[in-house]
Amino acid sequence: MEIIQVVLDTKLLQATDLAAKRQKVNRSALIRQALQQHLKRLHELALEEQDRRGYLAQPQREEECRIWEDAAAWPEL
Questions:
Q1: Which residues, 6 or more positions from 25, have their beta carbon under 8 angstroms from its beta carbon?
Q2: Can you tell me the distance from the alpha carbon of 31 to that of 5, in angstroms, rounded to the nearest whole number?
Q3: Which residues, including other chains, have CB under 8 Å from residue 27's CB and lie 6 or more apart?
């Protein structure tokens, strides 16, 4: 692991310390977890945007969806 310096304002530092205490981890562990979650979310957003651009570039045709509509329909009694 590498050691870095991070500048936080007083309120954010206090909130960080309180959250770390509640989670029963140290400040560094809390910041690592938060950063990992944030980076994972950014990756997921990038993948979603990639999918969105793909579907805009090549939209599904109506006949491609029709088979799934039949499969998802509730059976009539």
A1: 33
A2: 12
A3: 16, 17, 20
